[in-house]
Amino acid sequence: MLSPQDLAAVWLTVQLAALTTVLLLLLGTPVAWWLARTRSPLKGLIGSVVTLPLVLPPAVLGFYLLVLMGPNGPVGRLTQALGLGLLPFTFAGLVVASCLYSMPFVVQPLQQAFAAIGRAPMEAAATLRASPWDAFFTVALPLARPGLLTATVLGFAHTVGEFGVVLMIGGNIPGQTQVLSMAIYNHVEAMDYTNAHWLAGGMLVFSFAVLLALNSLQGKRRT
Known about the structure:
By secondary structure, this protein is an all-alpha fold. It has a single domain (4-116, 143-222), classed as MetI-like fold (Orthogonal Bundle). 78% of the residues lie in helices and 0% in strands. It has eleven helices and no strands. The protein has helices at 4-37, 43-51, 58-69, 74-81, 91-117, 120-127, 132-143, 145-160, 164-170, 180-189, 193-222. Helix 3 (58-69) packs parallel to helix 9 (164-170). The longest helix is centred in the N-terminal third of the chain and has 34 residues, at 4-37.
């Protein structure tokens, strides 16, 4: 049976994944819209920065975030000056790291969905005197709904499975930064394979359900 500490890790993981997904949808949607529509020469640079976590080892990303948010880093100095303290080894630090690490899993599906809309629907809305904001919320977002659902599922699932970044930024503090992947690692390290199986098996079922949902969604889009 799972211990209270394991259940706390599961609940903390759900909170982290939910908050990260909401923040990424709020921040990533305008970024994805800009990348899908712009002809700026900066598009390649911004797109590369957004997708960098796909190829960058999590330990490397976590290390540089630790340096930036540490007491001698620019972000760390700023948060201390604002009276917020330091972000490493806190839940807030995990949220920041998770947003950066999971960003491409939210931005890319949205960008592809916005690009698939094309310019004709937006131009038609403009001819009906719809403002850019009205056209975005009443035309673009409804048409991009499948991409929005995909981005939500992928962002949530990817955050649930994080290990390297959360280890570097959050450490392994029970009840504060110990997420599900860290709890599994602790059980394996202690050779407690029974509880490791319970937690890992739950993640396996969750991952399969995510893939099944995405495949079903893509199948409906084709029909």
